[in-house]
Amino acid sequence: WLVAGSLSQRLIRLTSNLILTRILFPEDFGVAALVFAWVQGLLLCSDLGVIRGIIQHPDGASREFLGTAFSLNLTRSILLCLVGAFIAPFMAAFYEMPELTRMLPVASLTVFINACNSPRAVLLIRDLELRKGEGISLVTVLSGIMFTVTLAILWGNAWALIVGGLCRDLFKCLLSYLICPPLGVRPCWDKKAVQEILVFGRWIVVSSIFAFLAIQADRLIAAKFVSTAVVGHLSIALLYIGIVRGLVGQANGKLLMPIFSKVEANEPGSLLPRLRRARSLLLCSVLPILFGMAL
Fold first, then answer.
1. Helix, strand, coil percent values for the chain (each to nearest 5)
2. 105: Cβ–Cβ under 8 A, 6 or more apart, which residues?
3. CA–CA gap between residue 101 and residue 232 (Å, rounded)
4. Single pTM value for the model
5. From the first residue on, what is the mean pLDDT of each consecutive set of 10 residues in the chain (295 residues)?
6. Exposed, middle or buried: residue 281 (CB in 10 Å: 0-12, 13-18, 19+)?
7. 3-state SS, residue 61
């Protein structure tokens, strides 16, 4: 289900972007790519490992732990929205793009919307209910394409990409409550749970910063020295690589991590050999695809 769902989503997104390239200009993709890069940077550089903490913690499914994780995520999202609004004028001046002053704060709202998802939705990953999880993701992607393409036809500028993404995330939030109702989970603040989440996530912040630089640095640097049209062409080209990268990320986050969290609880001594074997198999599966794309 994971492979089928991920491939379907990537192919649908690729098709939608091919459609959007016929409606919008490369400059629109360039501006939107820069905005999304900064939003992703805010997310990754403040990644507290809340979702991973729920997956690996023995009491991750309890109401207190879920409620605390929800409150922590919500607080973080509000702070990130404020940071996005604060840095927007500086980014607009640095890149000489006045439109970033409004676009970056609006795009930052996606962080808050995602933080409002049902607190029990992450249990689909923890309990390996991949069919439901991939179903939600697939419906979300399809809805996002409908919103974005419709807005692109009506507006014909980069705002269609940004607002379309917000509509997609809002739809996913509503869908998460229909599929995974909270069932008594309410925002709360358990000091022990907060401490355990932060201790677990302290190294995730460091690794996320390096991941952000590795993934987005090219666009952030290029946007200063080349035109937005060139950045737009670059972002479209990176969509092809994103198909493979997204598949690997889905496999790590939604399949391997929940499995290994159970292995750690039951057979801690066998965790490292199994992790190395799984990653080797994943690498051997991906390399031929990457070589084929390069040719």
1. 85, 0, 15
2. 81, 84, 85, 88
3. 19
4. 0.78
5. 64 80 87 87 74 78 88 89 91 90 92 89 78 82 91 92 93 91 84 82 74 77 83 74 65 62 66 73 70 64
6. exposed
7. coil
